[in-house]
Amino acid sequence: MVQYMEWLKAFLFGIVEGITEWLPISSTGHMILLNEFVKLDVSDAFYKMFEVVIQLGAILAVVVLFWNQIWPLKRNHGRHGGASVTIDRDIIRLWCKIVVACIPAAVVGLKWNDLFEELFYNYQSVAVALIVFGVAFIAVETAHKDKPAKINSLNELTYPTVLMIGMFQLIAAIFPGTSRSGSTIVGALLLG
Predict the structure, then answer these.
(1) What does the domain layout of the chain look like in residue ranges?
(2) What is the chain's Cα-based Rg?
(3) Confidence band, pLDDT 50/70/90 cuts, at residue 1
(4) Which of 29, 41, 91, 93 is the most exposed place for a label (fewest CB within 10 A)?
(5) SS3 179
């Protein structure tokens, strides 16, 4: 009976992760909150691995769904049965911009991740971050509601702008409960 209860808890974690991964809310923060109320009967090391694996599953679902839009190699079928492969340069540029946007969070995260986990990976910090960032999200969206965008396509994004948007990811890297996608949306709105 105990084993079935752990499976049910793991299933619940999967449901929460699966729903929150698609929304501009923190899936990590929601996992921390859920773990406060529904504890898995596992070691700390196993739970950390479980968090990585469950989030990896949600991310892989996103990759599978958007594969044709993110994979730069395209197969072309010729009229005479031959096939060739072309490279979509716009997708390569997109990936370059994604890498640049991730640099600030990677640098700060690699250096101070353990400190941030020790200070902020608890339900109190997550609850505060969810509330503060939720209010900030509403305020920024409301303030920018009728403003025309300065940038209207991915090709118009410059590398300095992408780096600035990446700086907003630092909020999510430091404070669990703040969504990476939400912080980049807010950052992009503030930048126009």
Answers:
(1) 1-65, 89-192
(2) 20
(3) low
(4) 41
(5) coil
Q: Give the whole-angstrom CA distance, residue 67 versus residue 172.
A: 25
78 pLDDT above the threshold of 80: no
Place of tokens 């390569």: 92
**How wide is the angle at C-alpha 89 spanned by C-alphas 21 and 85, nearest 5°?**
100
Q: What are the pLDDT digits (tens) for 136-161? A: 989 999 998 888 888 888 889 999 99
Strand ranges inside 20-126, DSSP E: 73-77, 83-87
Among all chains, which residue has been given the structure tokens 């999510």?
A: 172
Q: How far apart are CA 182 and CA 184, in angstroms?
A: 5
pLDDT at 65: 92
Closest CA to 36 of 123, 138, 145, 112: 123
